[in-house]
Amino acid sequence: MANRAGDGTDEDGGTMSLNFKVSPEFKKEFKGFAGSEGITMTDLLKEGFALSKRKRTK
User: Fold this and answer.
1) Global pTM?
2) How far apart are CA 52 and CA 57, in angstroms?
3) 10, 11, 15, 56: which could form a disulfide with 1 (CB 3.0–4.6 Å)?
4) What is the pLDDT of residues 43-52, one digit of tens each?
């Protein structure tokens, strides 16, 4: 995923990178859970966001 001019978009211009820090323990647990569910970490993040958004906008 090569960034153009550091703007966060990849070569196809359709996605952007999220950059934030988490503890090594959280990353290991998050990655392990995603793998055990057969999904990518990105898909797990998107699913979690959708669930949180639904819960908070009731």
Assistant:
1) 0.73
2) 9
3) 10
4) 999 999 999 9
pLDDT tens digit sequence for 23-35: 999 999 999 999 9
Phi, psi of 28, deg, nearest 5: -60, -45
Amino acid sitting at position 14: G
Question: How many angstroms separate the CA atoms of 22 and 1, rounded?
Answer: 21
Q: Which residues contact 10 (CB under 8 A, 6 or more apart)?
A: 1, 2, 3, 16, 17
Sequential DSSP letters for the chain: -PPSTTSSB-TTSS-B-------HHHHHHHHHHHHHHT--HHHHHHHHHHHHHHHHT-
Rounded CA-CA distance 15/3 in Å is: 10
